[in-house]
Amino acid sequence: MKKLLFIAAAATLVMSGCSKKQSTDVADSTPIDSVLINRLQHIASSGKVAFGHHDDPAYGYRWQYQPDSSDVKNITGQYPAVFDWDLGEIELRGDKQLDGVPLEFIRATVKSHNAAGGINTISWHPHNPANPAANAWVESGDTTHYIAQMLQPGAANDTLRAWTGLVADFIGSLKDDQGNRIPVVFRPWHEHTGSWFWWGANLSTPQEYKDLWKLTREIFDEKGIDNVVWAYSPDATGTPDEEAYLLRYPGDEYIDIVGTDVYDFTDNDDDSTFIKRARQQLDIVAKVAKDHGKVAAFTETGNETVRHPQWFTTRLLPAMEGYELAYVVVWRNAMPEMKSNHFYAPYKGHASEADFVKFFNDDRTIFLEGLSEF
Ligand code: BMA
Fold it and tell me: At 76, is the secondary structure helix, strand, or coil?
């Protein structure tokens, strides 16, 4: 089994020319986004998956902004391979994002994680440019076509352009010690197949949603921001099949990674529901990735409070088994004072700690040190 995996990985290297050595040699001529895309494809083809955690080093279950801290590292001795971030409320021009993480903390940590060989991914939960006082979430039942307003000349369009410009400037400002831009995955307009965000399915036509993507890319391109790997991540809601998954796909020229967000809402005694739902989605993702030449990823998942103590090895691993996924991200570990019962990785002393160590030690998972191979 191991040997077969190795042969498959070696074949991919030859095909894509993305060995570590080569990517260093051609660093001057390879577009910066391609370096990360090739690296992610290399990971996916290896049969392993890089583990990611949202806001991992910023705060955890009972701490915040302490040097060298992470609930994941406290248990395993290693940081996750992927640090996932969100830039929501950068558009309000304060110094923190929506969950209180200072933007300067994100900038500095993207840099240090990159220097350590880690990968950074970023989402964005912005306020509504057509109704700037309102945040990303809409009232249930809202069917206003906000995007349509943003696509017409006027205040909503100006606001969307200005806000997207701020995100583009921030991402463009992520640089290493040599002043080179750091490639990151950016995953805007996620979970659009549900209807809880202003860019959701009941609040736009497929064409309006695609045009939102096009405008976003236009704004980044006008500014010459070239360190972005673009991820498309429908929610499991609203994507029963490939046709539904692709209904709002902006096009191959706009997307590098195809992913999906699937959460486990099931109770302790039901092992199969999540696995079945996740695999149904990942089947679609795997097929689209293959047909469109894209990297596949499990862009968001988790079981809130990890209430199933063997969730990582008996649900998440079986859900991902057999798919070529570059990474999997579980959501944040909020401090109870900020949001109670809202964590997706265990912390030291939690009932799922031992299982998480098993997950860490499993040959199929990659944490920060394991990324040095890729
Ligand atoms: C949600 C929750 C919120 C948070 C948002 C953006 O799923 O975690 O508390 O504000 O993500 O990070």
Answer: helix
- Range in 1-10, 51-60, 225-234, 239-248 the model is least confident about: 1-10
Residue 304: both structure tokens together: 């809130």
Among 3-7, 233-237, 265-269, the range with the most confident prediction by mean pLDDT is: 233-237
Average pLDDT on 94-99 reads 98
Characterize 105-121 residue by residue with b for buried, 16 or more Cβ atoms within 10 angstroms of its Cβ, and e for exposed. Answer: bbbebbbebbeeebbbb
Average pLDDT value for the chain: 93
Q: What is the pLDDT of residues 127-154, one digit of tens each?
A: 999 999 999 999 999 999 999 999 999 9
Q: Which residues line ligand 1 (CB under 6 A)?
A: 86, 88, 98-99, 125, 331-332, 339, 342
Q: How far is CA 359 from the centre of its chain?
A: 20
3-state secondary structure of 184: strand
Q: Are 341 and 68 in contact (CB under 8 A)?
A: no
Q: Is the pLDDT reported for residue 13 higher than 70?
A: no
Are 47 and 5 within 8 A, CB to CB?
yes
Instruction: Answer whether 0.90 is exceeded by the pTM.
Output: yes
Task: Give whole-number Cα distances, 58 to 62, 71, 128, 276, 360, in Å.
Answer: 12, 10, 26, 33, 21
Nearest one of 84, 107, 31 to 259, comparing CA atoms: 84
Which residue of 96, 98, 137 sits with most ligand 1 atoms within 8 Å of its CB, as the best mutation to test the pocket?
Answer: 98
Crossing angle, helix 32-45 and helix 2-16, to 10 degrees? Answer: 160
Distance (Å, whole) CA 182 – CA 171:
9
- The average pLDDT across 226-239 equals 97
pLDDT at position 27 over 70: no
From the CA of 342, how far away is ligand 1's center (Å)? Answer: 9
Q: Does residue 9 register a pLDDT over 70?
A: no
| Cα gap 68→146, rounded to integer Å | 42
CA dihedral 366, 230, 296, 371 (to 10 degrees): -20
101/107 Cα distance (integer angstroms): 11
Match 């236009």 to its residue by tokens.
218
Residue 58 one-letter amino acid: A
